[in-house]
């Protein structure tokens, strides 16, 4: 098991204080920094010849006064967050006593893959449990719809077991459907797994099945969010990039065209070229898989399961599949149609409108400067499921915009105005803030949690 010392290095302490949510919302003295806000502060520190840990000294506090405010990122807010020392000690001790660990982006053991591939999008903090070493291993990420077809799930089970036999770690997201099938099949075959979770890290790690795999050092669970974090749509969307970046390539087993978390994550990876994108291309092929192939995805089929295919070699050179004789005509056939069960909506991140949702960054790309107000409002149903999660307490348009690197403030304002006009949110004056109406305040928890928690405080207790 990894070292679970309560100690954090000064840089990690500062990053934790700046970015971590601690205690209840009513106890928070200031809103923790988003990844984008932390990046802006880190850039200033770098240009000033300082490190995050320097902010904990009196000299650092004096230097912070010279920081130029940007929207709601002010020296006063930063100092309020840095003054949470007592809360930091409690949070770190509680999690490490339970068997977990915390890594900041400044730590040597922070996954190199995340920093090199995601760069400024890499999360400032990672909570985890299990061996750090698995985060650096050669790995295949496997993703897909919660409602994938039986054929796709059967392929996932076979390829995950094949990874286990070859000593290749499987990376997935822990959600019902393809994610859980991939993780469980790899563990059942004696393999190693990394699960990157959007919520409920503490709960998942206490499950008997996963707890035993963690103790055996065959499973590592990580999350960029607090171990007791509940499910929120934008967290699941944000988590997608972590799954992709931790693998040497990602296999999409089943995607719905134009909607859902699988589609959003796959198209985001294609745009940024983090890792090769492999797409299951066995007839009948779902429309989403076809569309990903047209966008540049690499087709794969059951030839991957051949004893003559070394998966590590295939990840380095996908062209080797061309030399493998297929057992059957598994590639796309002209006119092939998805069978019953393959055309269902992809609900990787549930919500009343999520079947039609894109990421805010994707939607922003469709909203050019010259768009009319009517055209902007036409996009509102696509982004509201994400925006609503920020409005459980009053926030300004700038505060919401600060969570996204590629969305303009004008877009956020247009969409928040639409929320007010449609009776979904309230605009408060002096200062202007937006908050959900009472009937919108009840956040949707994940109805398909893959695990049930025990009551044990220690993640590795043998009770339960």
Please outline the helices and strands:
Blueprint: H1 10-19, H2 35-47, H3 58-64, H4 75-82, H5 85-97, E1 101-104, H6 112-118, E2 125-129, E3 139-143, H7 150-165, E4 169-172, H8 178-188, E5 193-197, H9 201-205, H10 208-215, E6 219-223, H11 233-245, E7 249-252, H12 260-272, E8 277-280, H13 287-294, E9 298-300, H14 311-316, H15 360-365, H16 373-378, H17 380-387, H18 397-401, H19 409-421, E10 425-428, E11 433-436
Parallel strand pairs: 3-4, 3-7, 4-5, 5-6, 7-8, 8-9
Antiparallel strand pairs: 1-2, 2-6, 10-11
Helix pairs in contact: 7-8, 11-12, 17-19
Structure description:
The protein is of the alpha/beta class and 464 residues long. The protein folds into 3 domains: 10-125, no CATH class; 130-323, Rossmann fold (3-Layer(aba) Sandwich), CATH 3.40.50.450; 354-440, Orthogonal Bundle (Arc Repressor Mutant, subunit A), CATH 1.10.10. The chain is built from 19 helices and 11 strands. The chain has helices spanning 10-19, 35-47, 58-64, 75-82, 85-97, 112-118, 150-165, 178-188, 201-205, 208-215, 233-245, 260-272, 287-294, 311-316, 360-365, 373-378, 380-387, 397-401, 409-421, and strands at residues 101-104, 125-129, 139-143, 169-172, 193-197, 219-223, 249-252, 277-280, 298-300, 425-428, 433-436. α17 crosses α19.
């Amino acid at each position: 098991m990894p070292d679970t010392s309560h100690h954090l290095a000064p840089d990690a302490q500062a990053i934790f204080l700046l970015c971590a949510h601690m205690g209840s919302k009513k106890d928070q003295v200031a809103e923790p920094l988003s990844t984008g806000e932390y990046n802006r502060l880190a850039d200033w520190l770098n240009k000033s010849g300082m490190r995050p840990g320097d902010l904990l000294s009196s000299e650092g506090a004096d230097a912070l006064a010279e920081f130029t405010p940007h929207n709601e990122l002010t020296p006063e807010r930063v100092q309020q967050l840095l003054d949470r020392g007592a809360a930091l000690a409690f949070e770190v001790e509680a999690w490490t006593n339970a068997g977990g660990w915390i890594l900041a982006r400044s730590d040597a053991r922070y996954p190199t893959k995340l920093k090199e591939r995601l760069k400024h999008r890499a999360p400032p903090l990672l909570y985890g449990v299990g061996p750090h070493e698995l985060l650096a291993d050669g790995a295949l990420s496997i993703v897909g719809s919660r409602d994938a077809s039986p054929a796709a799930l059967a392929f996932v089970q076979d390829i995950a077991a094949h990874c286990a036999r070859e000593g290749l770690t499987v990376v997935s997201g822990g959600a019902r459907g393809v994610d859980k099938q991939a993780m469980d099949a790899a563990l059942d075959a004696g393999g190693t797994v990394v699960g990157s979770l959007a919520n409920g890290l503490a709960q998942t790690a206490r499950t008997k099945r996963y707890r035993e795999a963690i103790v055996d050092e065959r499973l590592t669970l990580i999350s960029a969010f607090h171990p007791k974090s509940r499910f929120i749509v934008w967290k699941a969307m944000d988590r997608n990039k972590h799954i992709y970046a931790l693998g040497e390539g990602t296999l999409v087993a089943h995607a719905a065209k134009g909607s859902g978390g699988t589609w959003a994550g796959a198209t985001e990876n294609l745009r940024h070229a983090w890792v090769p994108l492999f797409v299951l291309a066995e007839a009948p092929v779902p429309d989403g898989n076809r569309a990903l192939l047209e966008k540049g995805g690499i087709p794969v089929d059951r030839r991957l399961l051949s004893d003559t295919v070394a998966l590590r070699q295939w990840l380095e050179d996908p062209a080797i599949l061309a030399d493998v004789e297929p057992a059957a005509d598994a590639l796309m056939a002209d006119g092939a149609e998805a069978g019953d069960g393959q055309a269902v909506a992809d609900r990787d991140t549930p919500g009343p409108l999520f079947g039609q949702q894109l990421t805010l960054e994707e939607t922003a790309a469709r909203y050019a400067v010259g768009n009319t107000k009517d055209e902007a409002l036409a996009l509102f149903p696509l982004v509201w499921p994400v925006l609503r999660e920020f409005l459980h307490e009053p926030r300004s348009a700038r505060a919401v915009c600060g969570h996204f690197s590629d969305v303009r403030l004008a877009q956020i304002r247009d969409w928040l105005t639409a929320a007010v006009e449609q009776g979904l949110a309230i605009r408060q004056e002096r200062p202007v803030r937006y908050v959900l109406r009472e009937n919108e305040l009840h956040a949707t928890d994940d109805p398909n949690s893959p695990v049930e928690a025990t009551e044990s405080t220690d993640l590795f207790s043998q009770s339960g």
